Amino acid sequence: MAYIRYKAVAITVYWFISYLTVAEGRYDPTWESLDARPLPSWYDQAKIGIFIHWGVFSVPSYGSEWFWYAWKGNPPAQDVIEFMKKNYPPNFTYADFASMFTTEFFNPDQWADLFNASGARYVVLTSKHHEGFTNWPSSRSFNWNSMAVRPKKDLVGMLAASIRNRTNIHFGLYHSLFEWFNPLLLQDYANSFTTDFFSSGKSMPELYEIVNQYEPEIVWSDGDWYGPVEYWKSREFLAWLYNESPVKDTVVTNDRWGWGSTCHHGGYFTCSDRYNPGTLQTRKWENAFTIDKYSWGYVRNSPLENYLTMDNITQIIAETISCGGNILINIGPTKDGTIDPILEERLRQMGDWLRVNGEAIYNTTPWVYQNDSYTPNVWYTSKKVGFYTKVYAIVLEWPETKTLYLASPIPSRGTQVSLLGYSSTIAWRMPVSHSIGIELYMPIIPLNAMPCRWAWVFLLEYLYT
């Protein structure tokens, strides 16, 4: 009995100390402590981010950003081998592509203005992908970085400066923990990770360097499947990031920090590429997806059907935000530093849509229902205003009938309905053929007067539920 009392007291003391540690903003290098850190509020409010995959892989721009591994991995991809035979000399190496990473048309101010026009509230740039090439003059990459060879520029620093000087967008950085063919990592792997030549000598020092030098408010880690958390010393890095770094109060991180961490530990969850569970999650999450359906990097020969349409994108936005997630929509710039017109068009179209309907996206929270229980392709978000809640119904398809039936909202006598971007109120009635819900009279609007071209948002106020 004395042991039980001692154990109960010990547990109480442990949780009390943990509470004080979190309350004081001090975090230990344990998942219990790190996972207890509240996510800075700006991230959940922002909702919309842009991912940028850019590196030496943008030079061949064939297949995907995994080009080098497809060429030299085990087993290699036959189409990539044939591509190299047809287009490059026999002794050509992947490192030779770096001299062609010219970025001569890279204008970071233009990029910043485009991202601002897209409606994005944060940007995540690739600082280093699995190829190991760093887009900044890393002290750990010797001659394999953007200053030592072409493009002879600090790409990270240039974009960070433009984003901060021209917009209110939060700047973040992607960083791959591992590198496909780094001999130090391969040696650690052969030693079953009992040595840490790569993690301690290169990968983790890079993370500390980019945080201290560029102060990103998002640290988007990747390559977590190659090695345990202990090998990467991820928890020690996160404790430093939250306790001592120059961005300790505002930085957010994802969940890719080593074996067993993905979808379980870290800041917000990414779980898998293009993660879109379709249901409300208990933890903040992010849907990182690509406009080119099959590649994160730019691919020169992608046909039109490989690109998402704006109907696709607004559907992903509606599904993701309704279920409590953020979207991180990816583009792959070219080797010369331009953004392909079809990618620019999608970003500007997204901005046009958000200028009308952003009220239903930014600073919202999930409603009691995520999608309508009867009518398909209707997703809900909500926003607390004083003592009542505004509900937004995102309708992906304009009804062919004169009315739109929604089963989930329960109207009161004072319920008011409007269409975002449309000046007149929307008439409604109690359902004729259903016992619950609300029926909206669809307004007759000329095509040139429609508030937007994709996905329409109805604002419902003063509902019972």
UniProtKB/TrEMBL annotation:
It comes from the Eukaryota. InterPro entries: FUC_metazoa-typ (IPR016286), Fucosidase_C (IPR031919), GH (IPR017853), Glyco_hydro_29 (IPR000933), Glyco_hydro_29_N (IPR057739), Glyco_hydro_b (IPR013780). Residues 21-359 form the Glycoside hydrolase family 29 N-terminal domain. It is an enzyme of class 3 (hydrolase). GO terms for molecular function: alpha-L-fucosidase activity. SUPFAM superfamilies: (Trans)glycosidases. The keyword Heme does not apply. Residues 370-460 form the Alpha-L-fucosidase C-terminal domain. Its EC number is 3.2.1.51. The keyword Hydrolase applies. Keywords: Glycoprotein, Glycosidase, Hydrolase, Signal. SMART domains: Alpha_L_fucos (SM00812). Pfam families: Alpha_L_fucos (PF01120), Fucosidase_C (PF16757). Alpha-L-fucosidase is responsible for hydrolyzing the alpha-1,6-linked fucose joined to the reducing-end N-acetylglucosamine of the carbohydrate moieties of glycoproteins. Belongs to the glycosyl hydrolase 29 family. PANTHER family: ALPHA-L-FUCOSIDASE, ALPHA-L-FUCOSIDASE-RELATED. This is alpha-L-fucosidase. It comes from Sinanodonta woodiana. The lineage of its organism: Eukaryota, Metazoa, Spiralia, Lophotrochozoa, Mollusca.
